[in-house]
Write a structure and sequence with these properties.
Blueprint lengths: L6 E4 L1 H7 L15 H14 L20 E5 L2 E8 L2 E8 L2 H23 L7 H16 L1 H12 L5
Antiparallel strand pairs: 1-4, 2-3, 3-4
Helix pairs in contact: 3-4, 4-5
Length: 158
């Protein structure tokens, strides 16, 4: 039986609205220490020649709506906080799903900068932007590129 990776997205409004009385524990997520995980992120980032500053912090929020990774004894989480409020908390079911979320954001930022420098007049900027993001995600993992392409093709055909 195939298991498709999924994640939950919780924000403070949903938590309060539904009064979630339990802690989400992700038993299938491997336990990693922050240094090992950071090395893994850096290894993947090198594949696309990305700037180390694009990677999210680990266990440290800048509190300005830049996502970060929270590692604890229960698992790995992709979290975003702004001015003390949690905007979202994604609970991936496996490490690949977390890597996908992280590099989706990283490659989008890289693609925005690339598109701005290579803009074609009289063309929808999203065509080059999305194509570049798919290229970067494919460089990391073919599956990441396919997933990104599938998602972005629903927005605009490129």
């Amino acid at each position: 039986m195939a298991f498709k990776a999924m994640y939950f997205v919780l924000n403070s409004v949903e938590i309060e609205k539904h009064c979630v009385p339990f802690v989400l524990i992700n038993y299938s997520m491997p336990t990693l220490n922050p240094e090992d995980f950071k090395k893994r992120l850096e290894t993947e980032l090198k594949k696309i020649n990305g700037d180390i500053e694009l990677l999210p912090e680990i266990n440290q929020s800048n509190d300005f709506a830049k996502p970060f990774i929270e590692l604890d004894e229960h698992g790995l989480y992709y979290v975003c906080r702004e001015r003390g409020e949690e905007i979202f908390r994604k609970v991936p079911f496996d490490l690949d799903e977390l890597l996908y979320e992280i590099f989706d954001a990283v490659t989008f930022e890289m693609a925005i900068k690339w598109e701005a420098q290579n803009r074609k007049e009289n063309e929808d900027f999203r065509l080059q932007l999305f194509a570049k993001q798919v290229e970067l995600m494919t460089t990391i993992y073919d599956d990441f590129g396919q997933r990104t392409n599938s998602r972005l093709q629903r927005i605009v055909k490129f």
